[in-house]
Design a protein that fits this description.
single chain; about 375 residues; alpha/beta; Rossmann fold; Dehydroquinate synthase-like, alpha domain; 2 domains; two-stranded antiparallel sheet; 16 helices; globular; binds fe (ii) ion
């Protein structure tokens, strides 16, 4: 099958933030997570932009788990300020919000919910996008999608190759301010991206290579994030691995873990990375018969005996979860699983309708899906 591979230009390493002053920015709309702004990161961003004489406006209207409504204030600011660059500074919700604001700004004539990947957006007629991730997980700095929820809690994904940022600046001094638990949840999200990309129906040799390297780094180094939270070299490794996983999943597509996570997100009130981490071993176990070859290729990283059967493979990731403090089940994570099961008829259609559901190596029947969720619920 014919495929594509698209990526932003990427600047890696301490000082990558300084690349901001070399982009020729004249009017920058900085979209920043308020929590990140409190740490002074947006001041560093502003200083870099001012070095080249840019005018700067800041939007702090980011919401974690962004809703379509949460784009209104930033889109209004963009329409008034007329930026030639959008600068996203934060985690996945922030970068997705910046993509949504960019789209609303460049194409106010289009509704987000009706877009398809084939819609000609011409975003760069109005502005370009540079992303500075401050967490090491979502990979949104490298992807062509953004996730939102509408007022009814239904997931809305926008997807266009045009949404891939022009630049991703991977400066490990930015995620160095992440609390260790956020580092773990984000890293587990990245690990899920890599594992889902590796077994995806749309995988290519390019996504495979990136996914494998991301799995190797994340499985070996993520537990250290709890013990050595100030190790900038470690944070740099995890930061690059998260973007590699983002590139892999953007180009190969995610799978059932993410189809479930996007449908269940607002219902569980868990952070995306935490929810993904809990679901991961259960989905890997289910997928194993259809993804044996892809998973077995990780034998050199996980140990050959850990990739021999579904139970051993899933247990390897259960042990990793236990080591980094991720609960084994949704119930143990504080989710009202009774409610989740009672409302299954409401959210299962969102799972089955997700693009990532169709790319999963094994498509569950309605009964298999219910059984999987029951087991993951605990
Ligand atoms: Fe994710």
């Amino acid at each position: 099958m014919m495929g594509f591979f698209t990526a932003p230009r990427i600047c890696i390493g301490p000082g990558a933030i300084e690349q901001l002053s070399s982009l020729g920015v004249r009017r920058a709309l900085v979209v920043v997570d308020p929590a990140v702004a409190e740490l002074g990161t947006d001041r560093r961003v502003r200083e870099e932009l001012l070095k080249d004489g840019a005018e700067v406006q800041v939007s702090r209207s980011v919401r974690i788990g962004p809703t379509l409504d949460s784009l209104d204030a930033g889109a209004q600011l963009a329409a008034e300020f007329l930026p030639d660059w959008i600068v996203a500074v934060g985690g996945g919700s922030t970068i997705d919000t910046a993509k949504g604001i960019w789209l609303r700004y460049a194409r106010p004539d289009l509704g987000l919910a009706g877009l398809t990947p084939l819609t000609d957006l011409r975003l760069r007629d109005r502005a370009r996008l540079v992303a500075l991730p401050t967490t090491s997980g979502s990979g949104s700095e490298a992807t062509w999608t953004a996730q939102f929820w509408n007022g009814a809690g239904r997931p809305v994904e926008i997807a266009s190759r045009e949404l891939i940022p022009d630049w991703a600046l991977l400066d490990p001094t930015l995620p160095a301010t992440m609390p260790p638990t956020v580092a773990v949840d984000s890293g587990m999200d990245a690990l899920a991206h890599a594992l889902e990309a590796l077994a995806s129906a749309w995988t290519t040799p390019f996504s495979d290579g990136l996914a494998r390297e991301a799995v190797r780094t994340l499985t070996r180094r993520l537990p250290d994030a709890l013990d050595h939270p100030d190790d900038v070299d470690l944070r740099g490794s995890l930061h690059s691995a998260a973007t590699m996983a983002g590139l892999a999943v953007s180009n190969a597509q995610s799978g059932l873990v993410h189809a479930l996570a996007h449908a269940l997100g607002p219902r569980t009130r868990l952070a995306h990375g935490r929810l993904v981490a809990i679901l991961l071993p259960w989905v890997l176990e289910f997928n194993f018969p259809a993804a044996r070859e892809a998973y077995s290729s990780l034998g050199g990283v996980l140990g050959a005996t850990s990739t021999q059967n579904a139970g051993a493979f899933a247990d390897w990731f259960r042990r990793l979860n236990s080591r980094v403090g991720v609960p084994a089940t949704l119930a143990a994570g504080g989710v009202d699983v009774q409610n989740l099961r009672e409302e299954m008829t409401q959210w299962v259609p969102y799972v089955r309708g997700a693009t990532s559901f169709g790319a999963n190596p094994r498509i569950p029947s309605p009964q298999e899906l219910e059984s999987l969720v029951v087991r993951a619920s605990g």
